Amino acid sequence: RSTEAAIRLLKDNYNLTLAWDRVYKINGAKVTNSDRWLWAFWSYNRSPKSVSHYYKKFRGNPKPFAANVDNNESANYVSKIFAIREVLKEYVVNSQPAPSNAKASKTLKAKKISPADKEYAQYKKTWYSQDLPQRLESLQQIKRMYLSEGVVSKKSKAPVIPPTVTKELWYIKEVLAEIGYRPDSDKIVKSPDRDDRDL
Asked: Running along the chain, 199 residues long, what does each successive block of 10 average in pLDDT?
């Protein structure tokens, strides 16, 4: 789950650099795809808000920023999981043996899947077809479902919300704020201080 969430956020960050080109009036033709992925990795580690300042300052050129940044996490983790998933996805999926009916039945009995788990599983299959505001609304609904499942009685344990849901919620809000949207009571409204050309 954490790998899938990381991939989603990296793709969001890559697309965010295109929005920065418009906002900061940068000639996007000078920023290569490789450069954009570098900025995406740095945004993943530090948050888009802090990195966008340097994107503007260096006009999309990653070299001055790279010379003064500790890139260990990007080099040793983020880029590798991205490459592994994108390049080997089909091979890995096709190489998995199909479980026998008896084994699959035992697995389903051993783990009870809640409605919130099902909703989150469905989200992971369709997230790419939703825009960021829709994804935020979907994740907020999933979080509410997990919370409601935990409120059964006074003796109930605290609801367990997958960390990937919490992190992706926070991250999408960060990205939306960067491109001129803001959450407002579970709805997304356009910020009044930016116009459509900045999106």
From this structure: 76 88 83 89 86 92 84 56 56 54 53 86 83 87 89 59 85 78 52 42
Find all residues with CB under 8 Å of 187, minimum gap 6, and list them. 137
Look at the block and give the residue holding tokens 């609904």: 141
Check residue 190 and report its DSSP letter: E
By the 8 A CB rule, do 144 and 15 touch? Answer: no
Residues 6 and 63 in one domain: yes
92/116 same-domain check: no
> Helix-strand-coil percent breakdown of the chain, rounded to 5?
70, 5, 25
| Nearest by Cα to 193 from 42, 23, 57, 43 | 23
Domain count, the chain: 2
Global pTM? 0.50
Residue 50 sits in the same domain as residue 74 = yes
Domain hosting 133: range is 112-199
Structure tokens at 184: 């407002």
Residue 101 domain-assigned (yes or no): no
